[in-house]
Design brief:
- This protein is of the alpha/beta class and 315 residues long.
- It folds into 3 domains: 89 residues, Winged helix-like DNA-binding domain superfamily/Winged helix DNA-binding domain (Arc Repressor Mutant, subunit A, Orthogonal Bundle); 100 residues, Periplasmic binding protein-like II (D-Maltodextrin-Binding Protein, domain 2, 3-Layer(aba) Sandwich), CATH 3.40.190.10; 99 residues, 3-Layer(aba) Sandwich (D-Maltodextrin-Binding Protein, domain 2).
- Helix content is 37%, strand content 23%.
- The strands form 5 sheets. Strands 6-5-7-15-8 form a 5-stranded mixed sheet.
- Helix 1 crosses helix 3 and helix 5 crosses helix 10.
- The longest helix has 29 residues.
- It is rod-shaped, with a radius of gyration of 34 Å.
Amino acid sequence: MVAGGTVSGAGAPTGPDPRTPSAHQLRLFVALAEELHFSRAAARLFITQSALSQQIKDLERRLGVQLFDRSSRTVTLTPQGRVLLADARGVVAAMDRLSHSASTQARRLSGRLVVGTIGAEAAMPYTRAVLSLLHERHPRVQIDVRSLHFADHFDALFRHDIDVVFLRPPVPDGIEVQQLATEDRLACLPASDPLADRERITLAQLADRPVIDVPPQVPRVWWDFWAVDPRPGDTPVRYGPVASDVEGLLHLVAQGEGMCFLPAAARDLFPRPGVSYVEVTDLPPSTAGLAWLRSNRTEPLIKAVASAARCVASA
């Protein structure tokens, strides 16, 4: 070891090479080469003219070449300066990219997002697209997907057990929804029902069929929509037994205990023995969406997944 700690081992330097220019000096060099005027370059760089001149002289000393010819009136690049300018610009551009990349990484979110789904929403293409885009934008966010029953897909939001939920509106007060898709609804009938073999039917033809009900804790605004209650002409809806999820719903339909209305995707995703799906000509369509508590809309993870949902919806 040499006294002073500047050299260790076989003559290896421990500090920066004094001949190496700084990125800051190269940035000053590029600016002066573009302006060819010390005063204008200094103003552009928000430094004093004397500081710029001193830094350029130090850069020339480090490089061992003269970069500019100076006179009382003009500043011009030397031949060596013109050659080195392209390299200096490359270094400055690389440093800018590095700084931008580091800033992006610093802004990336981390944490855990708990996502609820109901029915077959986890399998829908828009759900996969939203979660894929969220992962692409924020790879450090852990995504935890949970399947929910009719009775808890709203309560889980209000209890803060989940952060967002892919569902089928309408929703109760206090919840916001980003719509993702629109889809027809179908009548889900027992295969033994005389209407089950029809290609299309009307709501009036279903007036006397009991509709499977849901547990009392499910917001009525949601199930009234799915039960089509009230019916055109204020025809009363007669309710049958209660189901807490789609499988329970389909089981009761197959047993002939009642009927229900489901999104058209159910025909492909939930084919079941004893169950038939029939188009209803005068049944309004349904929507699918991503929902979160209005009070949580400014939370970083909620904003991130809502942004991904808006991007998917617009596409």
